[in-house]
Amino acid sequence: MGIDEFQKRASDVAAELNNVLTVILGNISLAKAHKTPEEKDENLTVAERACLRAADLVRKLFNLGEE
Hints:
Elements: H1 3-33, H2 37-66
């Protein structure tokens, strides 16, 4: 893989990671604002799934460095 392709892939993954982090922060903020346990649980579940997605993106970044 050439440097240009590597930079493009890294940029794409970084942009996707930024989107996932926005989801995490937004849902944590919503969980803090909601009064019912059900609403909090729903927001925290979404944030948890987004964290798992972020971890997957970080693994992809590590793999890019090995190509």
